[in-house]
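Listing S7. Sequence submitted for prediction.
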Amino acid sequence: MSHLGIQILYAILNGEKDILAERFFAPWPDMESLMRRNHIPLASLESGTQLNRFDIVGFSLQYELSYTNVLNMLDLGGISLRAADRGEDAPLVIAGGPCVFNPAPVAPFFDAFVIGEGEEVVLEIARSLMHGKERGYRRNSLLALLSEIEGVYVPALHGSERRIGKRIIENIDDWHLPREPVVPLMKSIHDRITLEIARGCTRGCRFCQAGMVWRPVRERSMGTLQQMADDMIAATGHDEISLLSLSSGDYSLIEPLLTSMMNRYCDRKIALALPSMRTETLTETLIEQVKRVRKTSFTLAPEAGTQRLRDVINKGNTEEDLLAAAGKVFDAGWRSVKLYFMLGLPTERPADLDGIVDLAYRVLREGGKRRKVTVSLSTFIPKPHTPFQWHRQISLDETLQGQAFFRKHIRHRNLNLKWHDGRMSLLEGVLSRADEEVSALIERAFLMGCRFDGWGDRFRFDLWDEAMQALRVDREACLDERRRGDSLPWRFIDCGLSEDFLLREYEKGHTGEATEDCRFGQCHQCGVCTGGVQIVHATASVDEDRHAREAADADPGGIRKVRVRFARKENARFLSHLETASALMKGITIGGLTFVFSEGFHPAPRISFPFATPVGVESSLEYADIQVRDPGPLEEYIDGVNRALPAGMSIVDMRDVPLGGASLSSFITGMSYEVSLPPGAGADDKGDLSEMIERFLARSSFDIIRIRKGKETKKDIRPFVESLSFDEGRSLLSMTLTCGPQGGTNPLDIVRNVLELDDSDARMALIRKTEVICSDGSRLSGDPASDT
């Protein structure tokens, strides 16, 4: 859900009245097992429609280690793995993303590939298919229609001889999507707004596939970015914006853009992050602006440990740049930085490894005693369409030797060493550089049980290795050096770069000769701009001074403490406490209320909850206290907040309470619940449930065992049970539980331990909160008028 490309395509497709786009994600292995055992097909998040009922199934292939997940999703969705085996009624299965710049390894599984950028082409594909369906075209005729679209590769019709050029958006300023990103209820990897400020890079790092294939550079104007940011903040309630590009600091107006946005959003505590920065572009102005709200993370990527090797890869920055950047970050108050390096770069020598160790310690010295540095190592993979595509990838043994070297030489309590699994890098190299024959390996590994190969705890290299041996896949040949003039598996994919340019850069790399960024110097005849698409620079159309004046003149208003009562029913009862809190905060923000924030390193909205309601409990008696800037009549905001909340959550009431009044946790001293037990749940040979309850109530203590984070803890729950009874006729359990500074217990503890129901029966019980007990002895029920 953090992937911007999915959000863009989702917005484009669903913006058309005749097109419906829904989302599917790969199920985690435990869910897959349950689905297969119960013959449950893979279905969409929005409507629960099975995958094979759609006309087109599109995958975004961001990394090669997702290939077995693709096959698993097809299989779970009732679609044949190989395109040649699909019948007339099967969807057309297409793919895009960076991996398809070498589509050969997965070509047998897909009907078509989109090479390049998808904004325009995705609508052309959908409309072509609509046109074909209206005329009753069969599968082969529909594929023929797709094969006529620029940038679309259809393996069954094009083979590997016809050259397929990439699609490119000439002016990304014309595309303002997504304006209303989908916000998941659960926490995603990057729970923030992603604002693409530029696309493409001409720095010319010789190892970087993204910097080569997404050329030329195209920047959005400041005015467009400001409008997109305003729209997305209003639609999502997020409190952080990530300014995204391959190198954020290279955006030509980055300082005025950051200053303008900070002036606009600082009072609302909306933080800005620069996720990808080159050391020489990290200025004091940028650092000072970023830290005005919240110190988001800083990652610097020297890539190599010596200037000689940085010249080889055309990195374009120096050791002095790195140390100066690290010093600025530490001086500004950051406590840690992360450094990225690569093993196995072309011409690497032992001195280059020594250089990484030396740089790590020198950066640490820049920070002083209380600062931390993380050194992150990955293995260089010579990706297609880069100047180093002809170079070899080091073996697994060489990778392990390099990692062992750093384990020995980087040993300091404030130096944290991490590395990418060398076996994953080996497999990624095989899958990114091989030809179509490796598709049999991918299918064999899937059938043997490989899933989520990019997750360290799920990666089964033993199965991949077994599959390679069974199919006699020569992995060393896949990783070996290629001769200039060899027919590369990706030769027919045209990303705009000429082979002459790549060869020139390959040779210049071996001599350490630099190639200047063409934005600031001469054209290097790479081939990208010959088709009429040129570098597009940003324009400044935002009145920075006006935004600063608006921020200075804004009346923050007085502070009010508001007690919010809300309901959590239907599927919303399955949200965790953190997910409930996040949804509520986003809804309040989108509804127009302005939070008061805490001070300090990470400002947070002033919101408090009495006690966490257990997952699965239905309730219209949930409370939260919030502090907001004086909003006027509270009732005017309830409808707006409710429109922004997920289904099943709603605001019941909002009212003022004294700023210095009692906290919710001291005001609420207990809760009453009703539990409807599932049919057949009972004590069996353990006796009548009512008798078990009587025995429990007669005891002075009742210890239960809880396991949290792998540790067992014992807790006496008897003091927290005020009353407990069972209505056999209605199979209804009633209880009143107390809570306070010593903690409490939850209804599931009673169902599991007192009634001795197994976990599956306990989780099938429907639990409803019916009353809240207050410190003054009053009880609040489902009537909001009683809440005083």
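Caption to Listing S7: primary sequence and predicted structure tokens for the chain studied. The first helix runs from residue 4 to 14. Residues 376 and 657 are 50 Å apart (CA to CA).
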